[in-house]
Amino acid sequence: MNIAILSVSLSVYSTRRIAEEAEKRGHFVEQIDYSRCTVSLGEGRPRIFYQEEDISREFQVIIPRIGAKLTRHGAAIVKQFELSGCFSTARSMGITRARNKARTLQIMARKGVPVPKTLFSIDPESIPFQLQQLGGPPVVIKLQQGTQGLGVILAESEQSARSVIDTFYKMDQPILVQEYIREAEGEDLRIIVVGNDIVAAMKRTGTFGEFRANVHRGGSAETVLLTPKEERMALEAVRYLGLGVAGVDIIRSNAGPRLLEVNASPGLQGIESATGINVAAAIVKYAEYNGSRKK
């Protein structure tokens, strides 16, 4: 089977691991930099060019690894592959939904998946009301499209919260303001879902004095046993967004687990190291099974 990994570089750990596992299973695999892809419409059949080569019919399966900076373009390329008959491990609509934290939480709330108390607004005059609705500081302020813990700020006083929120509004940056779940103590869960299965889960812990638990921010990780409710939340979240492969982030609170966000291109290095599970192989097996069914 011919498999394309849509990623900007083969040097990225997750991309390299997926390519290695695909080759081990006898597939032809190629890393395609989606930022260098062009879609041609309006004259004959639609075509996808990689630089100057027509790759519209070269692959049966694509595995998108779309970065935050090029989400819209990457999702458009994924969509064109879908329209050409390729199986994608992450649907284009799911990628764009998951990239926007507000949209993800809206969908989860509508479906009854528990999420932290969250507000999003662009009205600087309502900042006092926003803080009041969340029970006052501390509050967590997040960019709606931030990744790896970037653009996530803990405001511990009303003055700092107002200052940060007002600054983001003036910069025309869409944000979320969320309740601070103190009892989590800088810990959260990262759960990898592939198809209808949870293949790996880890607990991430932030460094001392750091409320963000991202491994990219210097935190640590270890394997974790999920509760049935946490497993169900992760599987439902991925299904509601229309993704085949995703990383789901959950935080444990006194009121029960709360879904934080869903990542359509989850990193594999931290979770493979923490759990010893070959997540890349699970992704390839899922891709090959579904790719063969589309023939």
TrEMBL record:
Gene Ontology biological process: SOS response; translation
Record-linked Gene3D superfamilies: 3.40.50.20, ATP-grasp fold, A domain, ATP-grasp fold, B domain
A single MF term (Gene Ontology): metal ion binding
Stretches of the chain forming a coiled coil according to its record: none
Name used for this protein in its record: SSU ribosomal protein S6P modification protein
Lineage, broadest ranks: Bacteria, Pseudomonadati, Bacteroidota, Flavobacteriia, Flavobacteriales
Any one of the GO CC terms: cytoplasm
Domain ATP-grasp: from-to ranges: 105-288
NCBIfam families recorded: rimK_fam
InterPro entries in alphabetical order: ATP-grasp, ATP-grasp_RimK-type, ATP_grasp_subdomain_1, Rimk_N, Rp_bS6_RimK/Lys_biosynth_LsyX
